[in-house]
Amino acid sequence: MAWLKTLAETYDVYSHLAGVEKNDQAVLLPISHSTFNAQIEAAIDLDGNFQSSQKLEKGSDAVTAIPVTEDSSARSSGIAPHPLCDKLCYIAGDYALYTGDNKEKYFEAYISQLKDWAESEYTHPMVQAVYKYLKKKTLIQDLVKKGTLELDEVGRLTDNIKIQGLGQTGANVRFRILGSDSTGEVWKNQELYKRYSSYYQQKLADKKLCYASGKIESCSDKHPSKIRNSADKAKLISGNDESGFTYRGRFVSKDQAVSVGYDTSQKAHNALRWLIQKQGYTRDGSAIVCWMINRDMQIPDIMEDSVNAYSGIDDFDFDFDSIDTYESSSIRKSDTGKHFAEQFNHAVNGYAGRIKPDDRAAIIALEAATTGRLSIAYYDEIGAKQYLDAILHWQNHCKWRRTVKVGKPGEEKKKVTCECTPSPRDMALAAFGVQRSEWLEADTGLLRATVKRLLPCITQKSAKIPYDMIQAAARRVSMPQTMSNFVWYNDVLCVTCAMIRYNYEEGNRNMENFLKENSNDRNVLFGRLLAVFDYMEQRAMFEKDENGRVKEQRTTNAKRYWNAYSSRPAKTAKTIKQNLIAYEKKLNDYERMKFEEWTGEIMVPLSENGFDNTALSEMYIPAYYQQMEYMKHAFQKKEQ
Asked: CB neighbours (10 Å) of residue 5?
């Protein structure tokens, strides 16, 4: 129940935003409200006279906030009308006349419920106008006259004509009241929200102990759906399986299992829905969101790489649009990636200074257990300072130089090459992805499970990346021919190196000194040797024609034999070396001397420390990368 209580507290912090539209962001729903996709909008005046109507196109504008009851928000069958906006069969008194389908009981239940609200002390002029109009029972007739609905040749409403892909008889209708205010939009009126919430609260009874809040309040056994999106029917809390084994054998009724206050449930579910839509990660059938519990402050998104984790924070003091400046020739005198990192780290330190000692943060991960059920796959609640320290530890120890797209959400992103921590999904794809098109792809269930396993590694400093995941990523690195060179290098090799680094850096061990600290490790030595072979052939193929184009472009022997090399390094190294004889002749004297020097530096200790065919561990991969970077830098320095 901790997650319910925490989300209810979060709703109270942001309650001033309930029902308020802000910068096209998701709207925090008021209590006793939900959403539906409206297909028709009818305009009437304050006296209840029909004025006009229109069909609504599918899109964000069609999503409409509506008042609901416990029964109507959870309805799947039976008669349970929404209080104001609803389907034609509920609100049209002439529905049977135009369809031949007797839905008189639906309309009677709706109009009786609307009348009770319209005549109560919590009424509103908009509610009264809708009631005055609908009791005339002419809705479909008026919609047909305006051409919003169409009849067939016998004068019946036909479902052969679709609105947003839905048959006309099942259309949802919302209302606009002309003359009431500037827009007359019923679904955006703040006063109407408040009055309905107050009206419905006094209708509730059955007060019990709420297991979440610990208070005696009106409880509910019907809880909201539409948590991940407006079409989501899965629920987090449900107890309608009376014929199964939900509570049989332990409890006589579902009330004995748990009781949750209506107010608490509404706040928690509305807050969770809003947080997911506003700042959540929703991919591969899961929804993950992290947020500040006790005050209105944005926090880094742990589902993004370390740079983009801060791009959604409005007051983060870093100009993402200035990436072009970092890449310009005026700054290219030095390492642009280093310059970018310095500026970015300065902004991160400034952000961290705004965290207060009593701030609290939470993270929750949801996934679909069945079609109608959601499960909480992960939940954690920690101090915001502890949370940020854990994220910074993750980002500082699990980073590697690679190319990423950076920018504010909704804006065009730009590429920058810098040291950054890959996102959990990047790691899952590096371990299990297959390139079928431009990028890596993998089974959604496998991605979802892998991302979930990585969450504790981010929020808890002591948790290491699972070793089987690193092994899987290492196997993908050993198959460079199955991917494009960019994807293999940037999305597999660099990401795998970052994962290895996180588990390696402990105590005094640091990846900056990796080659020195492991100068006699056979895995590291074999990794360095592979880099020497690979770069030697690359340098030999750099020979250019009179037009400045590389004469020969193909996969190197090192990459062709990579998989065999990782399994039988000594035997495969001899094969690669033999194949490189022809390429050595294309090198100039300085290049030949340097490669011989590096090969000797590696082979002397390797001959004494396991030059055999025992399979290599994943440690050969960062050794390959660092040796390659060292050699490139050495030649660049010579050429300059």
From this structure: 18
- 4-7 LR contacts (CB < 8 Å, sep 24+): 4/212, 4/260, 4/264, 4/265, 4/268, 5/212, 5/213, 5/264, 5/268, 6/293, 6/362, 6/381, 7/267, 7/268, 7/269, 7/271, 7/272
Residues 261 and 218: beta-carbon distance below 8 Å: yes
**Mean pLDDT of the region 327-345:** 61
Cα–Cα distance for residue pair 616/610, rounded to 1 Å? 11
The C-alpha atoms of residue 140 and residue 157 are separated, in whole angstroms, by 9
Give the residue ranges of DSSP H helices in 422-513: 424-432, 444-459, 467-477, 485-486, 494-504
The reported pTM is 0.86
Which residues share a beta bridge with 220?
Answer: 260
What mean pLDDT is reported for the chain?
89
DSSP labels for 514-573? Answer: HHHHTTT-HHHHHHHHHHHHHHHHHHHTT-B-TTS-BS-----HHHHTHHHHHHSHHHHH
Q: What is the DSSP string of 259-271?
A: -EEHHHHHHHHHH
Q: 260 - beta bridge partners?
A: 220
User: What DSSP designation does 18 have?
Assistant: B
How does pLDDT run across 60-94, given as a tens digit for each residue? 688 899 999 988 988 877 899 999 999 999 999 99
What's the CA gap between 351 and 234, in Å, rounded?
37
Contacts of 546 (CB under 8 A, 6+ apart): none
AA identity, residue 10: T
Structure tokens at 551: 């004469």
